[in-house]
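Archive transcription. Copying these from loose printouts into the bound notebook so they stop getting lost. Printout 1 of 2:
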Amino acid sequence: MTPDKSKPKNIDEYIAAFPKATQELLELMRKTIGEAAPEAEETISYQIPTFKLKGNLVHFAGYERHIGFYPGSGSTIAFREELSGYKSGKGSVQFPIGKPIPLELVTKIVKFRIQENLDKAAQRASK
């Protein structure tokens, strides 16, 4: 959630509400996700930055001590070993501020999520 608790209208507004160092990390996440999913639409959902492609793809958010990444439970299970060095929950991962974000891993997870969403959309279409 943004530090001033206002509801952002877009990702630019969301990121602008954070301190400079956090803004840089959020922009890095945005760029990495956008490059991995160039067809995805940027939006705000649940009051945090969201990328959509055939449904919600991934979300991310800034906090005082970490950047939250929300790829869904299938991703955190599939990448459990690679995410083992980070605090995580069902469908969420915390990348501590002050440590490098594993951008290659973020890219792999986003591509995994794209395939999940495309598979689900194809299944719905075939019914």
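Printout 2 of 2:
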Amino acid sequence: MVDDEVGLLDMMSAALKVEGFHSVDKATTSQEALEYVKRNQYAVIVLDVTLPDMDGYLLCTKIREKTNTPIMFLTARTSDLDVLTGLNVGGDDYITKPFKPLEVIARIRAKIRREQNYREVDKTEQLEYRYGFLYLNLASGQLFVRNCEVSCTARELQLLSFFFKNPNYIFSIQDLYEKIWGNDSLGDTNTVMVYINRIRKKIEQAPNNPELLINVRGLGYKFIPPKDGSF
């Protein structure tokens, strides 16, 4: 947990330990958090946005260079722009202050459970998808575009693998929200659209004029596999 309010860190750390989380590292600065991330692997990382040495959005991007661990923002910044910024820079969830500690802990549990379910893939399920210049390996959690590995967060891989498993089908935003986020996300359509845009930047030649992950007006989104191995 990263927050410059020591009292909040102590309170949440105590609450987490009561709920069975016995290994909780606390950082009050971005630099301290980065040092922790270099040395350790975490199930979930919880960030404030307002920190003394670097804002949480920039910290999130730096953490994303090192790990795909789920990142949750826990902050007093409540505007729609703040929420979208948090999701755009790599956050998986955004919780605003004031908050109920048990609600935060429930969402942490949900994040961990979803990550475990994602890793425990059914052995009978297809683990590799190759569409033209796109190759996805679910066993290793890797995406390759034109033979170059492209870093993805766990949530991006979940959404992308869902499209790869169901090419040429239209899914509404609500369909995607329920399939990928379940009941532990923000509950608004912006969440899905942010992730769609993030994936487009990784697989499309022209993200602003997509040809692979398209919007069917009034219906939803559809993945159209590339026809060959090049853009």
